[in-house]
């Protein structure tokens, strides 16, 4: 089966994440990341209490990226719903789906990070700042300090997306994996290919590193067009960057 043109090097994450840029840039449809407008509704009330700046969110509004989920680079961003169960995938009948595949994919990604030059080539900027990609990925798998990995409805051209929310030291990243699966279009998460899934996690982790720890913390570059569709040239470059991990 031939993969579609957007599925370069057996890896398409079709990142619709708003990086580089944060919530303010996301709401404005992209741009540089020098002016972030902090929305108190983008973080939990517990974190607002810790900030201690008298900030509050009492209107029940969604974060800007979720309000703008149907337009611009926010398309396919992190899903809301907290602990709600993820939508069912439509993949191979009887096989594990969604989060049931996460443990094996994370284990594969951790093994990939041990390959010569993988961690240093992809995450060298963050490593130099003291951030270990294996630790950050495990943390996100568990949904603790640095963010979480979710499953939800993402445009069919995307394998997964990444975005960030929060403020300063309370910033978190969210990787949203597409529950959609159609073998005629390409390899998606719910096809159950552990090697592809593990590499996709590292790709999205690269975007998360740049969002969490500053641009240049990973060598993964922003790879979405202004309308959220994949930028093929950037995706090809990211596939080359991840080659030592493959």
Brief summary of the model shown:
With 246 residues, this protein is mainly α.
Describe it for me?
- The protein is built from eight helices and three strands.
- It has a three-stranded mixed β-sheet.
- The two termini are 21 Å apart.
- It has a domain at 91-245.
- α4 (102-113) packs antiparallel against α6 and α4 (102-113) crosses α7.
- It is mainly alpha-helical and 246 residues long.
- Residues 1-91 have low confidence and may be disordered.
Layout of helices and strands, plus pairs?
Elements: H1 23-27, H2 45-51, H3 64-67, H4 102-113, H5 118-128, H6 133-142, E1 147-152, E2 160-165, E3 172-178, H7 194-213, H8 232-241
Parallel strand pairs: 1-3
Antiparallel strand pairs: 2-3
Which class best fits the helix and strand makeup?
mainly alpha
Strand order of the largest sheet: 1-3-2
Q: What's the mean pLDDT score?
A: 72
Instruction: Label the overall shape.
Output: globular
Labels describing this entry:
246 residues; 3-stranded mixed beta sheet
